[in-house]
Amino acid sequence: MRVLFLGTGGYHPNARRHTACVMLPEIGLVFDAGSSFFRVADHLMGNEVDIILSHAHLDHVCGLTYFLLPMATGEVNTVRVHATAPTIDAVKTHLFAEQLFPLLPYFKFCELTADAPVSLPNEFKLTHTPLEHPSGSNGFRLDCGDRSMAYITDTTVDGTYTEFIRGVDLLIHECQFGDDMAEWAGKTGHSHTTPVAELARDAGVGRLVLVHIDPQKTEDDPIGIETARAIFPHTIVAEDLLEIDF
């Protein structure tokens, strides 16, 4: 199963990274719809798409407006958008307000509720958990047989979701800041290097891939990767268009 990192930056795009979007092409599953969402159409393997939104901040939903053309041309027949009721309301009311965007694509909006997993093909099971972040966010875990992954973005590491991600083969976790910006991580509801690496170690995950990188950081090592690897060796920083198997 391939995982494509279509957008690995946070807040706003820069020349190196677009904002949040991770795709599993074989099952038509997409986590978040940031500015990189325009890339989804190039990797479709079917005509149905399930979009899982962590929350309604613009760097995670703005790309929904880009999918009008693939739907209008018939390249995509069915698009299901899974999100909490407040996120769905924000998208419909604000992102697709008539003054901002003239036409709401024919999305099927599916509400994420506390005790209902998302139904996916091929026996995949998607569960979710609330995360601490201004206006709220959600983390997700995908299980199928002996394979598992988690997608955790826009939160401050606080120990409340350690058991939720325990033992996953692949942990995709936001790391907007290096440790030198720990104060800003707390102020903005984001994470920094050391707590994320400690979480991966303590939860016994297989691999850690860091995303949602500060757009002010365009260098090869924006978060202090050796600090992370000293705690959890199987750590990498994702780049746009990175492809891995899980």
List the helices and strands and how they pair.
Elements (H helix, E strand, L loop, with lengths): L1 E6 L13 E4 L4 E3 L16 E5 L5 H4 L6 H5 L5 E6 L1 H11 L12 E4 L6 E2 L5 E7 L5 E8 L2 E6 L9 H4 L4 E5 L7 H7 L4 H11 L3 E5 L13 H7 L3 E3 L4 E4 L1
Parallel strand pairs: 3-4, 4-5, 5-6, 10-11, 11-12, 12-13
Antiparallel strand pairs: 1-2, 1-14, 2-3, 7-8, 8-9, 9-10
Helix pairs in contact: 6-7
Describe this structure in words.
This protein has 246 residues and is of the alpha/beta class. The protein has a single domain (2-237), classed as Ribonuclease Z/Hydroxyacylglutathione hydrolase-like (Metallo-beta-lactamase, Chain A, 4-Layer Sandwich). The protein has helices at 58-61, 68-72, 85-95, 162-165, 182-188, 193-203, 225-231, and strands at residues 2-7, 21-24, 29-31, 48-52, 78-83, 108-111, 118-119, 125-131, 137-144, 147-152, 170-174, 207-211, 235-237, 242-245. Helix 7 (225-231) links the parallel strand 12 (207-211) and strand 13. Helix 6 (193-203) runs parallel beside helix 7 (225-231). The radius of gyration is 17 Å and the shape is globular. The model has no long low-confidence stretch (mean pLDDT 95).
